[in-house]
Every structure is written in structure tokens, then in C-alpha cells.
Amino acid sequence: MKRVSTLIVSIAIVLIIFFPVFVIFEWAFSTIWYGTSLFPTQLGFRSFIQVIQGGLGKSLILSFTIAPLVVLFSAIISIPAAYIIGTKDIKSKKLIENLFLIPLIVPPIVSGIGILSIYTQLGLIGNYMAIVLVHMIGATPYMFRSVEASFESIDPSIEEAARVLGATRLRTILRIYLPLVTPGLLSGSVFAFSWSLNEFLLTLLLGLPNIVTLPVFLYRYVGGYYISPGPASAISVFLIVPSLFIVYLMEKYIKSEYVAGAGIKG
Amino acid sequence: MATISIQNLKKYYRKVLASNIEALEIKDGEFFTLLGPSGCGKTTTLRMISGLISPDEGKIIIDGKDITKFPPERRNLTMVFQNFALFPHMNVFDNIAFGLRMRRMPEREIQIRVKEMLRMLRIEDLADRRIEQISGGQQQRVGVARAIAPHPSVVLFDEPLSNLDAKLREEVRYELKELQRKVNITAVYVTHDQAEAMTLSDRIAIMQTGIIVQIGDPKEVYLTPVNAFVASFIGGTNFIEGKIEKEISQDKVLFRSIDGILIEARKGKVNNLDSTVLLIRPEAIELRRSNENGIKGTVESKMYLGGNIEYKIRIGQNSILRTFSPSINDFGDVGSHVTVIIKDAAIIKS
Amino acid sequence: MKPKVKFSVALLYLLPVVIFYSFIFVLPLILVFLQSFDLYSLGAMKPPQFTLKYYLEFFDLKGPYLESLWFSFWNSALATIIISVISFFLAIFFYFINFKGKSFISATYKIPLFIPYLISAFAWWNLLSPGGYVQRLLSVTGIVNPNTLLVNDPNGIGIIVANVWMNFPYMVLLLVGTLKMIDPTLIEASRTLGSTFWKSVFKIVLPLSMPGFLAGSILSFIGMFGAFSVAFILGASWPQYMSISIYNDVTQFSLYGIASVQSVVYMISAILITYFYTKIISKIQGERK
């Protein structure tokens, strides 16, 4: 009985997960597909060529250079905060931790229209670094919570030992703490990177016409009144394939249950 | 109340037999203990009786019914856990009532039964408390109450006192025994603490690497251990090597030690006369002044323990005996001569 | 023991984050708030003059805005409930059962986490739009009327399906983590006391995993409540998620006043929901203490 239900659940999971992915691949490799038929009539690379000519390369570069910068900068501003909150006993600790959640609770469109006004006046629409800053809004809370959880788990007497041996606070953070909070940094980086790659609304509002990240590029083919499934799917394939690799790799080498756990406290 | 019969029970853990019980019969109402060091298979065996793990081979029969394939919830036995395993989201009353509610007992009867349990375990005023509010010792009582409440035929105990501090352990030990006697349930108890096993059990089974090495009542196991492992596990030991010289009576022999000393000894559990090891418990040795009659020895080492002094007395080139003597009788420093009287000795398997 | 530190000292370390958020987050919110009263103009320069007209327009019961807010709420809430139920059973499945190929399945269910939202939304648009495989399957088997729209529909069915698909892995991960924190001997004790496996799950595991479960679901819910991309691809022209409504008002109609009011109410709703939700969770936990 257990065997049968296990099999059913496993098959259901595989089907439900892969079906959408499968359809995207179908569309990506189809050149002719009539609305009434079940399968494409003709396969080919036309969609891929179309999007490459449409600027896929530029979008890939933009997305994959902005994301690491987002990770870097959110780490830089998060680490001192995570250090002081995680390793010390402060009265308003809970309050501060909750404050970090606010950027995730407030719908992005709300701050988006305000930033639109500021950026327009400052001439920052379509500015690369300005977009990085905007991506950091949602990435930083994840980075902070991850790193803070790591700091929390470190025995406070380690810092005392370091100080007693002559290390300044800065030295202590750099040489003692940073190596120890690497798990939190890694997991926070994964979240922050993913957030930046995914970010659509704010980049759409504030990045055009220069900053066309992958989601915005994709939007060109799915937004508006006419959806072009072919090219949209081709773009999607570019993102899905590396994602699949990462997922199966991660499952093999990292316990992603713990990665997710870093996002929520107890 | 129930009899338990275990036949050919085997459990493998990565190709090694973690538990291998050929035959075991536990009597109705008996307090039966599985005793042994960690890794000896006692917990594995207990968990197979409970149904929490399935054996690879063999049968478990309770009161004539083969329950080997039954899941735990159908076996009508309960378990008391080492870490108490009380449900943190329920109060004391609901914890004790849990088994009764699972058996669909009418709520009114549950009230009566739980109150009875609270009284029996002397935790009446704890009924409304949350689990985290009560002490370790109290949690333990709740665990026992919870296990007894549903009228199980057998209660299993998985090292229930190990998480209590030493003083508490002694107090609870005594109460547990009284309780079991009063309620007259068959108990299977697992522990690595020989004092616990000795005070609580009607019979003890000593286990080593998955097998039962000896079964007997506490006195029998203590005085007549079958081999050195059992002997050392259950009490203090002195082992003397040598040979059995001759039989004196039906259960007594004369033993000649490797240094030629003659000692009278009980045959013990040994059938043939080939054994070469003699067991002398430290308390079976009496020290007297060197001018008295007996085995001559010299003090090899001496350790002051407060009320007692631990002596190591050399009685031969290859034989040193360890014993205790009240500090009042000081037999002198290292090197002094003493006389050793051996009051009891037993042959064990070599 | 962690050393006590005064807040004023801590502030130094918090300064980078505080400065960052002040300019990129708090300032824009203030501007939006001011615009809602016409005290500031997000669009063309205008002299400030205090007015409540935009607020009146928003709270007009005959108007579209309250309906939009309500739609955003119930649609996300329904998705959250569905996700919670599915995730709970899946988490139990992964926690208790071991089988050959488990790590493959364990990796597979996490895939949606690594696919950008826009793409997931698009994929489900593919499957659920008329002619899409799932839509065909459901009509042919009679589960759904062939004429019923599953995407760009007034019930937001497509939105719910896509949201569930994208978010359930996160909840499963969270729940499995929570389950691992429950003492396994509790379940053993429950079984030796006569409860079957499923009874133990509902009477012991579920109550004990509730706090972690609820804490996780609130973030999930709020994320869906305020989201844009999924509603953008799969939503209908009416009713709209509030995020879409605000976006259109700003980019298409330049109606900054009403857009700001919607934003303010949207934001306050999200914060209030989170606040009351966490209050309820603490109350439940408090009752247990």
C-alpha cells in the first residue's frame, strides 16, 4: 500500500513539475505549430535565432552582471548590521529584525512609483547602478537574515578570545567571523542572486530603455496584447537549463532544507 | 498482564546482527530487565517487542498471540521513554489521557482513570500544568502514568531513569518497583545501570553484542556469573588464573591458582572441570592481621576513600586481590603484611 | 552570554543599511504618501494643495478599487491555503518515507524555485490558455467546461495555479525543516499509546509544526498579495490585482493621485495583515504556554 502511494505521489510530482517545463521546450524548438494541433508541426531553431538577434546576449550580460553586484553590495551593508544584531544582546533586537522584513512585505509597486519620481528627477532612469540599488531593496533582507542567523550561532566567547589576543573589532570581523559565517553568506547570496535575476517590475519601471534584464527582455514577447510563445520559450530555455543543473547539483551536495531554514527563524 | 515469548528473533544492522535472541520466555507479571553496555542490542530488542522496528527473522508472541506483524498501535503494550517523550502541546492530564482517548474510552471514564493515575503517581496537583513547567522527576512520573493508564498487557521501559540525576534515580527506582508490583503488569526494562537492574528485576538478562549471555534472578547472576563479562558488568571482580584440582562435593571444587594457592570455590555455572578462571568478589575478601591463619599477602597499593580504604593485596607473583576495608582498620602502608581470608569464590567460564 | 550593547552603539553598525533604505525605500514611500494628498506630485510639477479627493475616490463603494484590493486578498489567500495543504502532505511524505530515487524526486520538486517567476507564469499561461494541454485535458475529461477561461479570467484561476506551482517548494522546504525539529520519540510514544500513523500526524505532528508553518505561510501570502508578474501574465482586465491597477494608472493614464492612494492602502493592508497574523500566532503559542 505504501509502495503504491509512494509511486503515485512520485509520478505526480514529476509530471506536475516537468509538464510546464516540457511545454516551454516544445515551443522553443517549434517553428510551425497550429493552434489546433497537439504537437508542433515543424521543429527548428528559428525562435532561438530570433531572440539572439533581438538582443538576448545583451540581456544575459546585464542580468548576470547586475546580480553579482547586488549580492556584493547587499552583503557589504548587511554584514555590519548582522554582526551587531547577531552577536550582541540589544534591547530592540526583535524590532530591528522585523524592520528588515518590511521591504518584503510592502508591495514593490508602492515604492516603485515613488522611486520612479525620484529617479526621473535625478535623471537616473535607465542607469545601471541605479538598477543595482533597486534590486538591493528586496535582496538585502534575505542576505541579512541568512548572515544574522550564522552570526547568532557562533559562540560569543570566540570574539572575547580574539579581543583578548589583541584583535581590533574590524580584524575580528574580517579574520574570525567572516570565515565562520560563510554558510549564511552563501545561502544569503543564493537568495539575493535569485532575487535579482527574477526582479521584473522595478526594472521594467525604471530600467527602460537601457537596462533590459532577462525578465524585461522576456516581457517583450509576453507582455502587451500579443504573446509570442516561440521566442519567449527560447529565452526561457536559456534560464531553465542552468537552473536544472543547479537544482540537481545542490541536492547532491548541499542540504537545501537548511538553506531554506535560514530564511525563517524557528 | 501477559506472557511474552520470543523465538529466533534476529535484526541485522548493516550485515551485523544487532539482536539475535534464540529463545526468551518472560513470565506473566514479571519485572524482566535487559542489561548490558551500549550497543549490546538491548534497545533494539525492546523496540522490536514494541513494534517500532520490525525484525528480520523470528517471532514475538504475547499471551499466545503472534504479534510479530502487528504495528505498535495494535499490540496493547506501552512504552516509557528515556527522554520522557511527553507531548509538549498538551497538559499533564491530556498526556495521560491520550492512550485512553485513542481507545475511545468514554470521557467520563477517562476522567476517573486519569485521576486514579495522578493519585497513584502522586502528581495530583499537576493535572493542569504544561509539560515545560514541571521538573524532570515529575515528567518521568507523568510518562509512567501515561503508559499505565490504558491498561496495557505489557509496559516497556527504555532506560527511563538515565535522564534523571543520581539522587532522583535512586528514589524513583524504589517507587517504580512498588508500582509495578501493585499494578501487576509485565514489565520489560532496558538499562545499562547494574544497580537499577539489581534492585528492580525479578530476572535479568545480560546482553553482549546482540546475544543474551546469561539469564537469572539478581542473586544468581551476581553470585554465579557465567563468564568474566557478566561478572565485571554486574559487580566488582578479582580474577585468579589457575586450574581445578579436584571436586570436593556436588557443587564445590578445589582450585589451585597459578601461584599454587589453594582456594575452595563453588562450581558456578560451569559443567566441565577445564575452566581456568576463578572469580572472587571484593566484598568476599576479609583482611586480618598478618599473624592470623590464612593466605599470606602484602599490601601492593592503598587508596583512602573516606569511609573505606581500597586495598590491592598481592598474594602471589601473578595474583593481586582488590578489596575494601573500613578505614578504622588500617592494615598498614604499602609493603605491610596481611592475611587474606577468601569467604566465597566461584568458577567462571574462561 | 551575549554581551549587552546599547542601541546607540549598535546604530553605528546599522548605519549603512539605514542610510540605504532611507533613500531608496523610505523616501519614495513618503513621496507616495504625500502625493496621495496631492501635497507632492509624482508626475508633472504641480503646486501642492491638500486634498482628500483621491481617498474618497478610492473608498467609493461603487468604484473598482476596493474590489481590486479584495480580489488581491482572497485570490492570494486561497492560493496560500492550497499551498499549505499540499505542502503539508508532501513534507510528511518526504520526512517519513524513504525510497529508491528519493533524491531525484527531492531535487525535482525544488525546480520551480529556480525558474524565474515570469517564465513560470508564462509556462502556465501556455498550459491553461485555450488550446493548451492542461486546458484540453480538463475539457476533454469533463472536469471543466470547455468554454471556461482558465487564464485571464475573472476568478484568477490561472493566477492561483501558477502561484501554487511556484511557491509550494518553498513551503515544503520550510515544513521539512520544521518537522526535523520535532522530537521523533513523540511520534513513537503516540504510536505505542494506540494511535495510528495518520492519527499521530494530525494530533502530534501538525500541532507542533504549526508555528513554523504559519510563520512561513505569511511571507508566502504577502509575496503573492503584492506580486506583479504573475497577475500581469495571467490576470484578466477585470478584476485586477492592485499592483496591476497601480501600474496601469501610472504608466498608461498618469493618474498619480489615485495611484498613490491605492499604493498607500495596499501597503498598509499588507502591513496590517502581517501584524495581525503574527499576533494570532503568538496568541496560539501563548495559549499553549
UniProtKB/TrEMBL annotation, chain A:
Any GO BP annotation: transmembrane transport
Transmembrane regions listed in the UniProt entry: 7-29, 60-86, 98-119, 125-144, 176-194, 200-219, 231-250
PROSITE patterns listed in its UniProt record: ABC_TM1
Subcellular location: Cell inner membrane; Cell membrane
Keyword tags: Cell inner membrane, Cell membrane, Membrane, Transmembrane, Transmembrane helix, Transport
One Gene Ontology cellular component annotation held by this UniProt entry: plasma membrane
Record's bilayer topology term: Multi-pass membrane protein
Record InterPro entries: MetI-like, MetI-like_sf
Domain named ABC transmembrane type-1: residues: 60-250
UniProt xrefs under Pfam families: BPD_transp_1
Protein name: ABC transporter permease subunit
Organism of provenance: Thermodesulfobium narugense
Top-level taxonomy: Bacteria, Pseudomonadati, Thermodesulfobiota, Thermodesulfobiia, Thermodesulfobiales
Automatic annotation (TrEMBL), chain C:
Pfam families for the chain: BPD_transp_1
Highest taxon listed in the record's lineage: Bacteria
Record-annotated membrane-spanning stretches: 12-34, 73-97, 109-127, 156-176, 213-235, 255-278
Listed GO CC annotations: plasma membrane
GO biological process, one term: transmembrane transport
Keyword terms of this UniProt record: Cell membrane, Membrane, Transmembrane, Transmembrane helix, Transport
Location of the protein in the cell: Cell membrane
UniProt membrane topology term: Multi-pass membrane protein
Name of the protein this chain belongs to: ABC transporter permease
ABC transmembrane type-1 domain residues: 69-277
Family: Belongs to the binding-protein-dependent transport system permease family. CysTW subfamily.
